[in-house]
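Lay summary. Proteins are chains of building blocks that fold into shapes, and those shapes determine what they do. In this project we predict the shape from the chain. Here is one chain we studied, written as its sequence of building blocks.
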Amino acid sequence: MTPVVSHGLVILSDEIIVKILHSCRYLEILQFAITCKRHHSIVAETISLQLQIELELNNLEVVTGSGTFGSNYALILEELRRYRNAWLDLDIGGPLQKSMNGQMVKWKLSEGYYVAVSLGRADDFGPHSLQSIPLSDSVPRDPLSFKRPFHEFYVDYAQDLVVLANVKMQNKQYGQIELLSAETGLFHPLARCPLLILRVDFKINFIRYETFFLSVMHNLLAIQIDDDRTPSYELLIFDWKLGTLINRIRPNSGCGMSDFAFLDKDRLVLVSGPVNESTGDLEEVKLMIYNIYSQTHISMPLLNSRTGPILRLTDVAQSNPIATFEFPEIDDRYGLSNSLQLRAGPVPGYTTYSKSVGFAHPHVSTLCLPLILEDLSEDSIEDITFKIFVDVERLLRCMENDSSVIPWSKWGPHTTRWFLDENRVDTWSRFMSGFRYIRLDTGGFLRPLYDLSVFDFNPWNARQRDTDYLGTAEYRDELKEVVSKGTRLITPIPTDSQGSRGLVEIIDSDLPTVISRGFKTPVVSSLPYRVVTKSQTSWAEGWTVDGQHIVGINAIDPDSVDTTDGLGEGPPSKVVIYKLQA
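And here is the predicted shape, written in a compact code that computers can read:
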């Protein structure tokens, strides 16, 4: 929408102007506010406009039907600002410790619950049960046990849904998806086809845990099955309630790797790349956006069996991306690691924070792409590990020029921020929520407290609150060097003198990061970000985050560890929970 011209609105009442502004984006409202004193007063003094601006700036929306008695615009705005400021100040309480039984092998966060699976009998290829513990004061749920072991699971408590994925042992070309009630463990009453059997054109690796990848967004179920021998993949989108196939995505060449996430209610985002069929090497990386609802007619060719219909995927048409974002060319001395991962959360449309109303993200805010370049020279094994953060709002704006293939130079420098990292990426920690990425320092295992940092990639939040550089010019110069070289994730930040307030760093777009190794030309990235760091967390094997909790997984109290004769079995595993004080 074109920004409103002020002289054309002189004859209109304030009430009509407010109605017009409610149909505008926040940038247009802010532009309107600076045209004259009257317009500034209208915007500044209208609570509903202030709420609209605050919601859009934080990529949030009010969940329909979530309001409680007494909620109003003023109260919602106050709660939203308290929530934003609590994250800006890293105002968290805890830790609250809770124990889990068994050897946890996979875990997820779901609507305020921490859900984990543990191994069953030694002769089983996978877990048999789900355990869940509330992160706050929610009512505990009883464990769910199942007749058969499973390879992957997904829990959506908002819809009373558990999805289990497994390989049929009689024929490993068949994947089995069960849609169950989270309350009873029986087939879900709203699923027309609660048992989906999928036939692929490769043998599914039943030993490897990372074979199935599942995600649910309301009535949509995304299933990715990896073929680690070719390598290749099948990505399928179902309406799980109707039991109908909506879309099929696979590599055009037949060989490739990918990871995916729901981008918004209409689109998927993939990090993907083709694989050389003869060598098995990943050749390049691209970000690809697909429509969820395919423009190609999708039919469901079924085979009949004693257990029900079987969907034969080789006969299903596949979709093409609506936009492809290219990455910089890799130096000939390096090759891509055969692993692609995409980290983003939460799922669009799901409540991430709740007070008098619930707040949800209408689309993913920030993508995190871990990337590893392997040194191909014979005299060196110096691999390079990156974490690349992508602002989705800026990414989507790059699609407005109607080009289906966007070169790196047109989107990358202003939309991303690159960091060097020393950690190889795990497959289970969800360290992204909205614009925020959580990071623990890489100090020794037995330190009593660890520095917890929250990186905020919201360009507007990067300009909020004052900055504390410890008051020394030397540290300011050191920080500039660390940022420009991309080493902020692996550089210890002194926090001992900061107490409960923490250390705040603001990095704007005028201080770019330049990656000089691994690519044919230097890679420049300038997405603004803000970091707040506090020294107050104990050791844990991994960390995950949602809208109002930071959770440490397999946490161990250093005081209880005997270091005189090795660690042995150690104390029981715990979950530590920090809750946002908003």
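What the prediction tells us: The chain has three domains: 6-76, 77-105+342-582, 150-321.
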